[in-house]
UniProtKB/TrEMBL annotation, chain A:
InterPro entries: ABC_transporter_permease (IPR051393), MetI-like (IPR000515), MetI-like_sf (IPR035906). It comes from Lacrimispora celerecrescens. It holds the Pfam family BPD_transp_1. This is Sugar ABC transporter permease. Belongs to the binding-protein-dependent transport system permease family. The chain crosses the membrane at residues 12-32, 103-123, 155-176, 260-281. Keywords: Cell membrane, Membrane, Transmembrane, Transmembrane helix, Transport. It comes from the Bacteria.
Length: 290, 455
C-alpha cells in the first residue's frame, strides 16, 4: 500500500481529475479573462489590444466602487446581524430539545431550500408599493403615504434585508452543528458551579465555537462578494446603479452593453479582491488561533 | 417557562414567514398567468417531424425570442413551423426559445462558437444588428424574392446595410397609451389631445386612488421610447434625422432636448407613473392595468391581444382603447405623429449548413397569407406587410384603433432613440433616463453620458 502511494504515476492519476477540472474550469478561464481584459472585445467580431485602458476606466468608474461598497455593506450585515442572530437561534434551538427542535430547525432552513428566483419574486411582491404585503399592512394600520422599499435611497437596505434573511438558515445550521458538538458535560459542570445562562454562553459556547465562527465568517465574506442572482432578479442593480454588486455589474457590462473586454477587466479585479480578502481573513484567524 | 417564551417567539417568526410566503406566491400566480412578452421564463422545445420519409432529411435549428409558444407571436411562429413540417415531411425543425435578454446573451455565445442555429430572431436596429452584420454572421437575402410580399415602405430598411438585405421585419410596432374606457368615464376624463390634458387627467386619477399610467421601468426601454415620443412632439417632422444627428455628433444642443427632459421630469414628479415604477417589471406593470388598478398602460401595439386575452377580466378587456402621445405646448409635432418602427424579425445565419433550406423556411413564413394574415386574424399584432386585404370585419375595436392610428399618421419616428446607436449607447441611454427620472442626474449629466457612450 505504501509503495502504491509513493508511485508517482498513481499519485498523478489520483490527482489528475481534480487538476484537469481546476485547469480547464478555473485556471484557463481566468487566464483568458486576463487576456480579454486588455482588449476592447465586444463579444462578436474583431478586437484590438488596448493595454491598461480598461483598468484606467475601472478606477474612475463610480459604479464599480458602489458595487464594492455594497459588497462590504453586505459582509458587515452578514457578520454583525445575520451571524449573531443565527448563533443565538442555534443555541436556543439546542435547548428546545425533542420534536419542537426538529420542527423549528426545519422551518428556519426553509428559505434556503426555496430557489433564489422564487425568493426574489416573493420579496419583489412583498415590497411592491402598489399591492405588496408591506403596503397593505401599513394601509390597514392607517398609513396613507407612499412607501417604496426598492426605490431610490432605500433599495440597498431592502436588498440587504432579503439577503440576510435568505442566508440565515445556512449560518444557523452550521452554528447549530457546532453547538451540538460541544460536550454537554461542560454545561453540567458549569451548572453545578452555578454559572448563569449568559456566563455559560460567553465562557463555554462562544470559545468552543471559534472554529465554526471562523468558517462561517469566511464563507459570509465570500458570498457577499459573489452576490449576484438574488440582486439581479430583485432589482437588476437598479434603481440607477444603486444596488449593483460586482458580479451583476460585470454581467451588465459584458452581456448587456456588449463591452466584453471591460467586463473581463472587472472580473479580473473581482478575482483579485476575492483572493486578497480570503487570504487576509485566513491570516487573521491563523494569528488569532496561535 | 423560559422554553415556552422561546417557543412563542419562534412561532411568531414562523407565522410571519408563512404569511410572507402566502402573499408572495399568490401574487406570483397572477404574474405568471398574464403573458408578459419579455418576462417569460425560458422555454425550450425540440419538435420532431411528423412521419419521416426516407432520405434527404433536413434539420433546421431555430433560435427564437418568443418563448411563449401557446399565445401571441410565439403561437403564430409555432403554427407556421408546424404547417411547414406538414407540407415538407423531410424537414425537421428544432426550436430553442428564450426571452429577449437571455436571447441576446445566448446569441452572443452562439456567435463566438461555430455552432450557430440556422434561422434566428434578429432586430433591425443598429444597437443589435450592426455588430452582427460586421462580424459576417448573417446570410444575405435576395431582395427580389420579396417583391410580392407587400412589405410596407421602409420596413426592410433596418435590416439593410450598404444596399444588402440581411433579414425580414416581423411587425409594425406602435408605442401608445392603452386606456381603460370605463375608468375614464367614471372619472370624467376624455382622451387627452394635449399633454396638459393628460397631466390634468393624472390629477383626477390620483384623486380617485388610481394609478394614472402603469409603466414598466425595470426594463428601462419603455421610458426611452417615451422620451422618443416627447422628442417627436417637440421637434416635429425632422425628429428622426435630428435624433440621429444628436447621437452621431454627441451634440445635444437641439433646443428640443432640454424641453423633453424638463417635461419628462415634470411628468414623473406629477406622479403619472406608479410609485416604484423604476423597479416594476413588464408583467407586473401590465397586471396593474389588466386588474383595473391603473387607468392607462404605456406599451406597444404587440399587446393588442389584451382585448382577446381570456385571462383578463371581461369588463376590462372589452374596455381597452388606445391613444398616441398627445401634443405638447410649444412643440412642432402633432398628435398624429406616432412612435412606430419595424423592429424584430428573422434572419438566416451565414455559416448555416442548411442555409438554402433555412431561407426557404423564412420565405415561407413571411408569405403574406402566412405571418401577416395569421397575426392579424388572431389579433396578435400588425405585420410589417400590407395586411389590408386580410381585414375580416371581426377585428376588436382595439385592433381597428391601431390601424387608424397608423393610417392617419403624419409622421413616424422609425427606430427609437435608444436603439439608434451602439449597444453601449443603448445601455447608457436607458440607464440615464431612469436615473434622471429618480433625480440622480441633471439634464447635463444625461447629455454628457449619452455623448460619452458613443465615443
Amino acid at each position: 500500500m505504501h509503495n502504491l502511494y509513493s508511485n508517482k504515476k498513481v499519485i498523478f492519476s489520483l490527482m489528475a481529475p481534480g487538476l484537469i477540472v481546476f485547469v480547464t474550469a478555473i485556471l484557463a478561464p481566468i487566464i483568458l479573462s486576463t487576456y480579454y481584459g486588455f482588449t476592447n472585445f465586444s463579444g462578436i467580431g474583431a478586437s484590438s489590444f488596448i493595454g491598461l485602458e480598461n483598468y484606467k476606466t475601472l478606477i474612475h468608474d463610480s459604479v464599480f466602487w458602489t458595487a464594492l461598497r455594497n459588497s462590504l455593506l453586505l459582509s458587515i450585515g452578514f457578520i454583525c446581524i445575520q451571524h449573531p442572530l443565527a448563533m443565538l437561534t442555534a443555541v436556543k434551538l439546542d435547548k428546545l430539545q425533542g420534536k419542537t427542535e426538529g420542527l423549528f430547525r426545519c422551518i428556519f432552513f426553509i428559505p434556503n431550500v426555496i430557489s433564489v428566483a422564487v425568493i426574489a419574486y416573493l420579496w419583489k411582491f412583498i415590497y411592491n408599493p402598489s399591492f405588496g404585503l408591506i403596503t397593505k399592512v401599513l394601509r390597514a394600520l392607517g398609513y396613507t403615504g407612499q412607501l417604496n422599499p426598492l426605490g431610490a435611497g432605500n433599495a440597498i437596505w431592502a436588498v440587504l434585508l432579503v439577503l440576510i434573511w435568505h442566508g440565515f438558515g445556512w449560518g444557523m445550521l452550521i452554528y447549530y452543528t457546532g453547538v451540538k458538538n460541544i460536550d454537554p458535560v461542560m454545561y453540567e459542570a458549569a451548572a453545578i458551579d452555578g454559572a448563569s445562562g449568559s456566563k455559560t454562553f460567553f465562557y463555554i459556547t462562544l470559545p468552543l465555537m471559534k472554529p465554526v465562527i471562523q468558517v462561517n465568517v469566511t464563507m459570509a465574506v465570500i458570498s457577499a462578494l459573489k452576490q449576484m442572482e438574488t440582486v439581479y432578479l430583485l432589482t437588476a442593480g437598479g434603481p440607477g446603479n444603486e444596488t449593483q454588486f460586482m458580479a451583476s455589474y460585470l454581467y451588465k457590462q459584458a452581456f448587456q452593453s456588449y463591452k466584453y473586454g471591460y467586463g473581463n477587466a472587472i472580473s479580473v479585479a473581482f478575482i483579485a479582491i476575492c483572493l486578497v480578502s480570503t487570504v487576509a481573513l485566513n491570516r487573521l484567524f491563523a494569528e488569532r488561533g496561535e | 417557562m423560559k422554553k415556552r417564551h422561546i417557543g412563542a417567539l419562534l412561532c411568531t417568526a414562523m407565522i410571519a414567514a408563512v404569511l410572507a410566503g402566502c402573499s408572495g406566491s399568490g401574487k406570483q400566480e397572477g404574474a405568471a398567468g398574464s403573458d408578459g412578452k419579455q418576462t417569460q421564463a425560458a422555454a425550450t422545445e425540440a419538435a420532431t417531424a411528423a412521419p419521416e420519409k426516407a432520405g434527404g432529411d433536413v434539420t433546421i435549428k431555430v433560435f427564437s425570442n418568443l418563448p411563449d409558444r401557446t399565445s401571441g407571436q410565439g403561437l403564430i411562429e409555432q403554427m407556421l413551423f408546424d404547417q411547414y413540417r406538414k407540407e415538407n415531411p423531410n424537414v425537421k425543425i428544432e426550436i430553442e426559445a428564450l426571452d429577449d435578454e437571455s436571447y441576446k446573451t445566448k446569441f452572443k455565445a452562439y456567435a463566438s462558437g461555430s455552432d450557430m442555429p440556422d434561422l434566428v430572431s434578429a432586430w433591425g436596429q443598429p444597437s443589435f444588428l450592426d455588430e452582427v452584420i460586421d462580424a459576417g454572421l448573417l446570410a444575405e437575402l435576395n431582395p427580389s424574392d420579396y417583391k410580392d410580399y407587400g412589405f410596407i415602405n421602409g420596413a426592410l430598411d433596418g435590416f439593410s446595410k450598404n444596399g444588402k438585405l440581411y433579414g425580414l421585419a416581423r411587425n409594425t410596432d406602435v408605442m401608445s397609451f392603452y386606456y381603460n374606457k370605463a375608468l375614464f368615464e367614471q372619472n370624467g376624463v376624455t382622451v387627452p389631445k394635449t399633454y396638459d390634458e393628460l397631466l390634468a387627467a393624472v390629477e383626477k386619477f390620483k384623486a380617485a386612488g388610481l394609478i394614472p399610467v402603469s409603466m414598466d421601468g425595470s426594463d428601462k426601454w419603455p421610458l426611452s421610447i417615451y422620451i422618443t415620443s416627447l422628442f417627436q412632439q417637440f421637434d416635429g417632422a425632422t425628429a428622426s434625422a435630428d435624433m440621429q444627428a444628436s447621437i452621431k455628433d454627441g451634440d445635444y444642443t437641439n433646443e428640443a432636448w432640454p424641453k423633453v427632459l424638463d417635461l419628462y421630469k415634470k411628468t414623473v414628479d406629477a406622479g403619472m407613473f406608479q410609485t416604484g415604477f423604476e423597479t416594476t417589471d413588464y408583467a407586473t406593470s401590465m397586471n396593474l392595468f389588466t386588474n383595473g388598478q391603473s387607468a392607462m398602460y404605456y406599451m406597444g401595439s404587440w399587446e393588442m391581444s389584451m382585448a382577446t386575452n381570456e385571462n383578463i377580466p371581461e369588463d376590462i378587456r372589452k374596455n381597452i382603447g388606445v391613444f398616441s402621445m398627445p401634443s405638447v405646448t410649444g412643440g412642432k409635432g402633432t398628435i398624429t405623429d406616432i412612435t412606430a418602427w419595424n423592429g424584430g424579425g428573422h434572419a438566416v445565419t451565414a455559416n448555416s449548413p442548411v442555409k438554402e433550406e433555412a431561407i426557404k423556411l423564412l420565405n415561407y413564413m413571411y408569405l403574406p397569407e402566412n405571418w401577416s394574415k395569421l397575426c392579424w386574424e388572431n389579433g396578435v399584432c400588425m405585420s410589417a406587410q400590407d395586411f389590408s386585404k386580410y381585414l375580416t370585419g371581426k377585428e376588436t375595436s382595439l385592433q381597428l384603433e391601431f390601424v387608424d392610428m397608423v393610417n392617419n399618421s403624419t409622421n413616424i419616428s422609425g427606430t427609437t432613440f435608444n436603439d439608434r446607436g451602439t449597444n453601449a449607447f443603448k445601455t447608457a441611454c436607458e440607464d440615464s433616463f431612469v436615473e434622471f427620472a429618480i433625480g440622480k442626474l441633471t439634464p447635463d449629466d444625461v447629455f454628457n453620458k449619452l455623448a460619452a457612450a458613443m465615443k
